[in-house]
Design goal:
Helix content is about 35%, strand content about 15%. The protein contains four helices and four strands, in the order βαβααββα. It has a four-stranded parallel beta sheet with strand order 2-1-3-4, covered by helices on one side. α1 links the parallel β1 and β2. α1 crosses α4 and α2 crosses α4. The chain is globular, with a radius of gyration of 14 Å. The N terminus is likely disordered.
Length: about 140
């Protein structure tokens, strides 16, 4: 396992969806947990909800991750500027575009208004994508 040298900065990732209540919160929680502090993590939304989706919280708790204290945050230009990778969650969100940033759009089902049974496959797809992202960011040459 390689770790960044003291002179290197950690890669940073921003997850964006409209309400910052489901997909982007699950992705950020997985990256924080599976990245083990080696990657800086942010999440935000263009029209943040009042709270995180309870079905997303329940689905993540089933996988041992507590998101119950998370709160949706508003997307800012500063958050985009401070991130190396910006990942939108298939919601057509418009992000400010800055040179030198890596942009990806992950087409994922929207868990809004759905029960935990419908959220589990979304959670599992996010987890697989996060594992691949960690490998790419930390082990790519």
């Amino acid at each position: 396992m390689s770790t960044p040298k003291a002179t290197e900065t950690k890669p940073s990732v921003l997850f964006v969806c409209v309400h910052n209540a489901g997909r982007s919160q699950m992705a950020a929680a997985y990256l924080r947990t599976l990245g083990k502090g080696r990657i800086e993590v942010r999440s935000a939304g263009s029209a943040p909800a009042d709270s995180v989706n309870p079905a997303a919280v329940e689905a993540m708790a089933e996988d041992g991750i507590d998101m119950s204290a998370e709160l949706p945050k508003v997307l800012t230009t500063e958050a985009v500027q401070a991130s190396d990778v910006v990942i939108t969650m298939g919601c057509g969100d418009a992000c400010p575009i800055f040179p030198g940033k890596r942009y990806e759009d992950w087409k994922l089902e929207d868990p809004a208004g759905r029960g935990v049974e419908a959220v589990r496959p979304i959670r599992d797809e996010i987890k697989a994508r996060i594992s691949a992202l960690i490998e790419d960011l930390l082990h790519a040459k």
